[in-house]
What does this fold into?
Amino acid sequence: MDRERLAYQVAEILLRHLPQGAEPSAVEAVTADLVRLLEAQASGVAATDEPPGRRLVVLTVLGRNHSGIVHAFSEVLAEAAVDIVDINQTIVHGNFAMMMIVDPTSAKLSFSDLKAALKRRGDEVGVQVFVQYEDLMRALNRI
Amino acid sequence: MDYTRREILETLRMTELEHFDVRTVTLGVSLLDCGHEDPEEAGRRVYAKLMRVAGPLPGVVAEITEALGIRVANRRIAVSPVALIGTKAEPASYLAIARAIDRAAQEMGFDFVGGYTALVHDGFTRADRALIASMPEALSTTKTLCSSVNAGSSRTGLNLDAVRLVAHMLKETAYLTRESGSLGCAKFVIFANAVEDNPFMAGAFHGIGLPEVVVHTGVSGPGVVCQAIRRAGPCDLRALAEVIKRSAYKITKVGEILGRQVADRMGVPFGIVDLSLAPTPELGDSVGEVLEAMGLERTGACGTTAALAMLTDAVKKGGVMATSAVGGLSGAFIPVSEDAAMIAAVREGALSLEKLEAMTSVCSVGLDMVAVPGDVSEELLTGFIADELAIGVINHKTTAVRVIPAYGKGVGEIVSFGGLLGEAPVMDLRRLSCETFVRRGGQMPAPITSLRN
It folds into this structure.
């Protein structure tokens, strides 16, 4: 789908759902953002403008499913000012699996303190927690 | 998400479930500037240099492994062959240096230091003789020090006098460390075609062609390969080779990433990744188990040498894709005492010394961690070692012998070393005499294939 048509459709959807009298410039800005996101998704490139050299952290949580697991970890991350870049969560046979890609660039904690805090939260919630920089994920799976 | 769920979980399975660890981060350090005619002063210089250069390594490794989410089993140092450190050529001189090295290593929390080494593949210097004479005491009175002798090369042939000297030395070391299963002998290895950048013990030393300081890594990972083979199920050999290559790629890549990051942080060059499959006595971390997963009832069965040849080759092919800095020994290790499936095979009578010898012609490195009865003669031990080194000399490969003539032990008894060194059932040697042959002495000439220019 070409870009203009996509933008037109997105704007149409926005106007249909937004209350009357929405600021046209706001609609335009949201449309532009959404178009960029959709295009990036379609081409398989990460939607965010990733600054070069940014080293992300992969947080993996595995265990028995119960309520509040995502909340438990996003709370620790929010308190540490760690940005969640991406999140993927699924339930397989009652087992909970969540992978988060987080950006610790402006974190208030050092990596090892953050890791310890997340592990502690894992113990409280009763799930296994693995925290590591993305280096291995990046290097091992793609040639 | 940049990584799929499958990729993340596969990486975790490898690091968390399949015993994957990087066996060693080894810091190579030149000690050639530490010589002094007063051995005590030479020792002080060695101690000071090691403390200064190697001190930060354990901390750096701890920090980086935590960040990457992997484990490193050992932190080690490889020093210049100690016989090359200029000092008075007497055994006591080298003992002073041995103690200085061991003290520094223990204070800094290193597991082993290699390099109490003499390179005598084409003859001895006075220093070499003094160093070898000091080995029994050095190996029995230090904890971390590892020692080696290079007694042959494809370029020079085999120095049989050196082999005999080593056989004598081993018997003495076995006696001096008799209380601990002749453990001293487990910290010594004799080579043909020793390599300068080997990060593994007991044979690591910092070669004279290397930079001042350098970081090497040695990977492990038979568990990862074994599980991948099991998951592959009944496939043909080409497909199996592919499975092994893919696993070796991943294992090696981890070694490369870790090594480069450690070297960066230490501010020194990165050397090599040794992509050998190194087992530990732990269940599920065994090369023998890999061979059995390939389809053998037991290691030692017919087909063992073929399976090992294919495994070693596939590991190399996968490994070289993952790094352009392959070095060291790079192949599969088959140390008997450090490998649960090998120990079981020997106990059941499935694996003999002769079969092990055949296996070493297609893998690195050699007869490793084999225990033989304490009463074998020096000549028999010489012949036993010479056989293995001849395989290396003629075939242009590294071969080695790490043999424990276990004092006071007979065939079938178990010698226990503990830790990564494991335990070895005492195996019998053919008791036919080779005395007249080995007493001829001298240098076995270099093979015709040495003339390559």
